[in-house]
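Morning. Coffee machine broken again, so started the prediction first thing and wrote up yesterday's gels while waiting. Chain of 187 residues, entered below exactly as on the submission form.
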Amino acid sequence: MSTTDKPLLIKRYASRRLYNTETSDYVTLDDIAGFIRDGREVQIIDLKSGDDLTRQFLLQIIADHESRGENVLPINVLTDLVRSYTTQATSIVPQFLAMSFDMMRDGQSKMLENMGAMSPLSGMPGFEAMQAQQEAFLKAMTGGFSTRPDDPPKPEPSAADPADTSDLQTIKSQLADLQAQLEKLSR
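Came back before lunch.
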């Protein structure tokens, strides 16, 4: 098992400092947020009591981002979350949220696959660099919700499958129509 397969262990000392056990140095909440954005799972343990503090620190990271104006969660969602703590809905809310984020990651992954498959530019030199820039842009626009590192790679569509070919032709046609409309607007 590689080090990225198991959670990064962070120990909180009595002084409230956070210690990265892999690199043997102290880290901040921003460092931990960076590890998570890079696809690492983290586990934060209180050194003295052995209590798992991960949830508490993840909530603190979210609160810090929200307080800096990096608003991801609309007020009505925050309000509904608070309500869910005081109702019987608490049993379904975590599963619903997890499924919603899974669907969003899956949708993003499919969109990235389709962007590469439908592009008539795929044979041009430098296409891979352009595609990497598109993926980075999409990741930035979706707040870093990328596919999970442990997700299996998606199979490539079979060229022999007529449905895939038909869909690809439809997408290429739509892309050509959009490009023609953009050219008309730029004149």
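Residues 146-159 have pLDDT under 50 and may be disordered. Going to sketch it on the whiteboard this afternoon.
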